[in-house]
Amino acid sequence: MAYGGRYPVRVEAVPDPGVGRWLWLFKWLLAIPHYIVLFFLWIAFCVLTVVAFFAILFTGRYPRGIFAFNTGVLRWSWRVGFYAYGVLGTDRYPPFALSADVDYPARLTVREPERMSRGLVLVKWWLLAVPQYLVVGLFVHGGVSFVANGARARTPEAGDVVFQSPGLIGLLVLFAAVSLLFTGTYPRGLFDLVVGLNRWVLRVTAYAALMTDRYPPFRLDLGGSEPDGVGADATRGSPAGGGEV
What we know:
Blueprint: E1 9-13, H1 27-30, H2 32-59, H3 64-83, E2 106-110, H4 124-128, H5 130-140, E3 145-147, E4 162-164, H6 168-183, H7 188-208
Antiparallel strand pairs: 1-2, 3-4
Helix pairs in contact: 2-3, 3-7, 5-7, 6-7
């Protein structure tokens, strides 16, 4: 079996020096049309992933059309996250497109495998990926919650308001927003860290969606560009296969 040196999920971004001080305050509103479309796209993504599961189980192949569509959903989500509160990396409005043939500072490609393991498909998305889910959960959702009604810690009941702490990505993006507001700049080191965390999340998402048998590396790759050799030390499960989608 042949393997490429780079991890098959490539997440890249170009920092935009023209990000404004104030627009981030309104991006939650501007991005609503994308959120509505993505809601339905992710429903289709989940349904088609189930279809892909059975296709891999019986044929060892991920249907090409489903692979292209699911890659497009990940790509669309990354663009919107980069624009909005996943990064706040640009003020350029994301295109309504699944295609990679779009000039936008956030890019995502996935190398399509020729064949996939029938055995791994049964366990990788729920058992093998559990350690990654724990890490990604801290990045995205945080780990602290408390109940607003009542002074003592207890199990939430009907009528209680439960507050969940933001994940690490959310906290760092908040720091970036404050920096933009008061200085008009996005610290480059902070940008590199936020993109790196998002890259980790997207790799795990693609793995859990059965789009690769290569286990995501437990390594934070910082910056907007993918380093060469990413994933060379990751768990290997299937041929690297065809070109990028």
